[in-house]
Specification:
The protein is of the alpha/beta class and about 210 residues long. It is about 45% helix and about 10% strand. The protein folds into two domains: about 5-15 and about 85-205, Rossmann fold (3-Layer(aba) Sandwich), CATH 3.40.50; about 15-85, DNA polymerase, domain 1 (Orthogonal Bundle), CATH 1.10.150. It has helices spanning about 15-30, 35-45, 50-60, 65-85, 90-95, 110-120, 130-135, 145-150, 165-175, 205, and strands spanning about 5, 100-105, 130, 160-165, 180, 195.
C-alpha cells in the first residue's frame, strides 16, 4: 500500500529544466563554447552538475574552475526569480494527495528551497526536502530515495517516486519503489516503470 509520495524537483514539480540549461548555455558562451540549452536538456536530463561539467570538459577540451559553478548557480537563481513556474497542474494535484509527501533531488538543498519557494510550493512539504548533496550519492544510485523513505519513516515498497528523467526512474526501481514517470512531452515512451502520466492531475488515479 502506498503511504508516501517522493517527488523529484526539477522538471517534475517546477518547470526548471530549460532555465537550468539556458544558464549553462549562457555561461559557456562567455568562454567561447557553443552549446544549445535544448540539446543539453536531452543529453543531461537528471544528471548532477559535476558530471555534466565533466562531460563538457571532455568534449571541448577545457577545464572549469570552482568560480564557473558558482557563477552558473548565481545566474540560475536570477533566472528562477524572473521566470520559474510550477509544472502545469502540480499544485492542484499535490493539494488532492492524501499521502505524506517529500522531495528528493540531485540538486543542492538551497536550490530546491529556492525553486519551491519561488513557485509557491514550499509549504506543501513541511520541510521534508532531501538532497543528494546531503548523502554524497546521486541518481541513478537509489540512495537518495532510500534516505528520503527512511527519514519519512516508510519502507521502500510503501513509497512511490514521481520522476521525469530516465536516471530518476532507474534509481526509484533500484530502491524497490513504485516508479511513476511524468512525461508531458512523450520523450521516454520506452521506459519500463509502474505508470506513465502526461499531466500531474493523473497522479492520483495511478497511485490509488
Amino acid at each position: 500500500m502506498i503511504r508516501c509520495v517522493i517527488f523529484d524537483c526539477d522538471g517534475t514539480l517546477v518547470d526548471s529544466e530549460y532555465l537550468c540549461n539556458l544558464g549553462l548555455e549562457l555561461k559557456l558562451k562567455e568562454i567561447g563554447i557553443v552549446e544549445s540549452a535544448e540539446d543539453m536538456m536531452v543529453r543531461f536530463q537528471g544528471w548532477k552538475l559535476a558530471t555534466i561539467l565533466e562531460s563538457l570538459e571532455t568534449k571541448h577540451n577545457v577545464k572549469f574552475d570552482d568560480s564557473f559553478s558558482l557563477s552558473y548557480r548565481s545566474l540560475v537563481d536570477a533566472l528562477f526569480e524572473k521566470e520559474l513556474k510550477p509544472c502545469i497542474g502540480v499544485e492542484k494535484a499535490i493539494q488532492q494527495l492524501d499521502f505524506k509527501k517529500c522531495v528528493a533531488s540531485s540538486g543542492p538543498i538551497n536550490k530546491i528551497e529556492k525553486a519551491l519557494s519561488t513557485t509557491g510550493l514550499l509549504n506543501y512539504f513541511n520541510g521534508n526536502l532531501f538532497s543528494s548533496y546531503e548523502i554524497g550519492s546521486w541518481k541513478p544510485d537509489p540512495d537518495i530515495f532510500l534516505y528520503a523513505a527512511k527519514m519519512m519513516g516508510f519502507k521502500p515498497d510503501e513509497c512511490v517516486v514521481v520522476e521525469d528523467s530516465p536516471v530518476g526512474i532507474e534509481a526509484a526501481k533500484a530502491a524497490g519503489m513504485h516508479a511513476v514517470l511524468y512525461d508531458p512531452n512523450n520523450k521516454h515512451m520506452d521506459l519500463n516503470c509502474t505508470a506513465v502520466i502526461s499531466d500531474m492531475m493523473e497522479l492520483l488515479d495511478v497511485i490509488t
